[in-house]
Amino acid sequence: MRRLLLLGWLTASVSKWHTIVPFLEAANKPGSHGVMLDVGANDGGSTLSVMKGLCKWSFANLCCSKKAPPPVSSLTFITFEPQPKFRSNLVDLHAASGLCDTHKYEFYPAAAWSETTNLSFVERRDSRASLLEAVKVSRKHGDRMTQVPTLDLASFINKKLNWTDLNFLKFDVEVAEYSLLPNLLTRGALCPFDYFFVEWHLLFVNESQRLEAVALRLAFDSLIEKGCPPRPRGRRVFEHDETENNKLVKVPGLTERARWQNGHGYMPTAPKSGDSKA
């Protein structure tokens, strides 16, 4: 298990930087403005790393340094995280990073969802696995329930993001992706983004719904490409199937469907009405 966790962490880190670096390279062009939306920020580590790395990684037009002229390009960092334990750190993230006022930072102490309301939230010992109860996963020993505000993410994106900016989405919402991404797609809220980093958590999906969850995962890139107007620079979609959350996870119906598609066996039974909710 430790090896799986380490492998998952390493592959996530590599995949994440494969997305962030091209985004920063594009935003580094003089006069550019980029927006990094971190949904499911946890302790803000990913966003803080980017903030602190602008000078270290030699993005000269984004670098805030007393030894250099003010940046000629700018970034806006936006984080979403409902867990109260991280609130003070996330509020102070801009100050902790040492960023100058050329770059902006906004923190929303809410869970991203399909509507603005209050929902039960499952806090787990491993904060990275905490999640909304609305996604209906099995409870674990040590789970603690609390109420958190949610924010209609599609509405937020459609009002907040500018199509002329460079937009980056980091999306790590602990199994809520299977409910939230279709909502964002059908409401056009994924279309303004140029860069995506999406984490998938198949392990926590109910077995009866895993086949359609896999289908969403496999079709996601194509759905964005075919469902959204083209972006001037194209789009880069990186999807991370973290090992311990996806590999060796039983998917009822997958083998039967594959056999039938390849000319063997019988047509798989259609899912029962009501089984389609993730």
From TrEMBL:
Q: Which residues form a coiled coil?
A: none
The keyword Lipid metabolism is annotated on this UniProt entry? no
Q: Cell inner membrane as a keyword?
A: no
Q: Which domain of life is it from?
A: Eukaryota
Residue ranges of every copy of the Methyltransferase FkbM domain listed in the record = 38-201
Which keywords fit this entry according to its UniProt record?
Answer: Signal
The protein's matches in Pfam families, at most eight in alphabetical order, are given as: Methyltransf_21 (PF05050)
What does UniProt give as the signal peptide span?
1-16
- Name the chain's protein: Methyltransferase FkbM domain-containing protein
